[in-house]
Amino acid sequence: MRTSAVVAGLGSALPPNRVTNDDLTKELDTSDEWITSRTGVRQRFTVPVGMATSDLAVVAAQRALSSSGMTTVEAVVLATSTPDHPCPATAPDVATRLGLAQVAAFDVAAVCAGFVYALATAAGLIESRVVNSALVIGADTFSTILHPQDRTTRVIFGDGAGAVVLRAGNAAIDGALLAFDLGSDGTGRDLITVWGGGARQRSSRIVPAAADLHFAMQGKAVFNRAVQCMGTSVAATVRSVGWDVTDLDLLVAHQANARILRAIGQQLDLDEDQVAVNLDRVGNTVAASIPLALADAVATGRLRPGHHVALAAFGGGLTWGSAVLRWPDIPVAME
Questions:
Q1: Which candidate in 229, 254, 278, 308 is catalytic?
Q2: Do the strands 308-315 and 250-253 form a parallel or antiparallel pair, or are they unpaired?
Q3: Domains in the chain, please, with CATH?
Q4: Over the range 50-63, which residues count as b (16 or more CB within 10 Å of their CB) and which as e?
Q5: Residue 284 catalytic?
Q6: Which tens digits make up the pLDDT trace of 227-242?
Q7: What is the value of pTM for the model shown?
């Protein structure tokens, strides 16, 4: 039987600053009703001054290792679009701070689809026997790249980190990652972007406006693409392992906003209780979204050993992907 990557541990971390919708009404022309009705978000958490993506990543990774009962891994794959620095990658620093000397460590940048991309990458390293174990971390601090007066983005996004430990095993056991589907479409590169600060802007010699150094998103255009791409990807991945969508106990999709989650569930003909939702409490945490939602589902008893689970994400690039597995019997270490 071929080697498979198996989920062996799960951990999460949130920063200390809790920001409610009412808090935002003191800074922006908005209201709790406006935010909740359009996004489903009621609160989010943000990093204080001096805290960065690596700090959250380290905590989530430590908790995932504790959950797994393992003390070391052979690779660290960090999904993030808010690295501590443009160069170098953040993963080697995270690995060192975890006491993982000289292991393979690198970043994956696929915005909100980053965790699924990183999971597929780490699974490939294990299945090809390059390594026997890996930490996959999704961590983002989008509060650091949002324009302070942009109510369309500030109300949605929060900061956070989540991590899973993967180990070598086989496809017959719970926790084995059974299949992936990944895709991209660069024609939509301008729909989710930070225009300034990269090589394109720098080589143009154009001095960016202040707004161009912050995150921007064309929400209406993104909505339909996100629903269609995630729905189609999940259906394809489920079919590839001989399941039907009706076999799913839980869909853990990227927590973009409540309307997108409802639309994906309707497209796949899933009941509301088959779609995980935690964005009301943490917001859209980008690459951390799926592991945070997994941790919440385990902690609340919504996700139990043996459950058929699909993961789905959509992000800038455009990028999207999905994965399926039977959930293992592992504890969760979280806030």
A1: 254
A2: parallel
A3: 3-170 (3.40.47.10), 177-333 (3.40.47.10)
A4: ebbbbbbbbbbbbb
A5: yes
A6: 999 999 999 999 999 9
A7: 0.95
